[in-house]
Design brief:
Blueprint (H helix, E strand, L loop, with lengths): L10 E2 L3 E4 L16 E6 L7 E8 L3 E4 L6 E9 L2 E3 L4 E2 L3 E5 L7 E3 L3 E9 L10 E4 L6 E3 L2 E8 L9 E8 L15 E7 L1 E6 L2 E6 L3 E4 L5 E6 L4 E8 L9
Antiparallel strand pairs: 1-2, 2-19, 3-4, 4-11, 5-10, 6-9, 6-11, 7-8, 7-10, 9-12, 13-14, 14-15, 15-21, 16-19, 16-21, 17-18, 17-20
Length: 245
């Protein structure tokens, strides 16, 4: 999309935000040599996690682990990533790296990633790293609706304090009702499009758009068009509303 002079669909509100690609600001960071990062969601806007896009034309070498106490989730949008622990992630491969995981990231030229990081809230023993690929995850109908399939990327074990899913919508499918809850979300549209309700606003969304949904914001999505829609969505999970943040 090429917006008119001085305009953008991006919209930042008290408890939600829509971040569209033409408004991304790509910067460099000392901990990510060779990369540009567009941070889309951060604690400065009220979120309890960070979400960004990482891209590199020249490749990445030995990207250091996340800071102490921080969990990291990486999803490959294009290209491939190799971890120092031996795993290779190709397009739509992913890795959950719990706090204090001693793993560095490298990649050849031409890679783009979705990066999520949050301060991990432990319930007993911290889980081991998880590696996978979307194509290997069997989808399950959400509340029995086979036009809306969920692929869970992390185990349902209570030791995980977050959940990351791929939501798959048949054209015309929608969430069953407007949700309101104390958990928050970070979302990236992967394919297709539709309309997202956030609070009292209705946003047209398509591939590449990102959304932050803060605690208790009313939220709903309906898929439009002739092709399926998919988005990746994170939420803080297995936590009491009074859990330490």
């Amino acid at each position: 999309m090429t917006p008119s002079f001085g305009q953008t669909p991006s919209d930042i509100r008290r408890n939600h935000a829509l971040l569209t690609p033409e408004s991304h600001e790509w910067i460099t960071q000392p901990d990510w040599p060779g990369a540009e990062i567009a941070f889309l969601i951060s604690p400065d806007m009220g979120a309890k996690f960070a979400m960004g896009l990482v891209r590199s034309k020249g490749g990445l070498t030995g990207i250091a682990p996340a800071p102490t106490g921080i969990a990291r989730f990486v999803f490959v949008l294009e290209g491939a990533v190799t971890l120092s622990t031996g795993q290779e992630l190709t397009t739509e491969g992913y890795a959950f790296l719990p706090p204090e995981t001693d793993a560095t990231l490298s990649s050849p030229a031409g890679v783009s990633l979705l990066l999520m990081e949050w301060r991990f809230v432990a319930r007993g023993e911290i889980p081991a790293p998880v590696f996978g690929h979307v194509k290997d995850i069997q989808g399950t109908p959400l509340r029995g609706d086979d036009w809306l399939m969920v692929q869970k990327m992390l185990p349902t074990d209570a030791g995980f304090d977050g959940e990351v899913n791929i939501m798959n919508f048949h054209p015309g499918a929608s969430l069953a009702y407007v949700e309101t809850h104390f958990m928050e979300h970070g979302l990236l549209m992967l394919d297709g499009g539709g309309v997202y309700r956030l609070d009292d606003r209705w946003y047209p969304v398509g591939k590449g758009d990102a959304i932050w949904m803060g605690p208790h914001v009313p939220q709903w999505f309906g898929a439009l068009g002739r092709t399926p829609s998919r988005y990746l969505i994170y939420k803080n999970y297995n936590r009491s509303p009074l859990a330490a943040r």
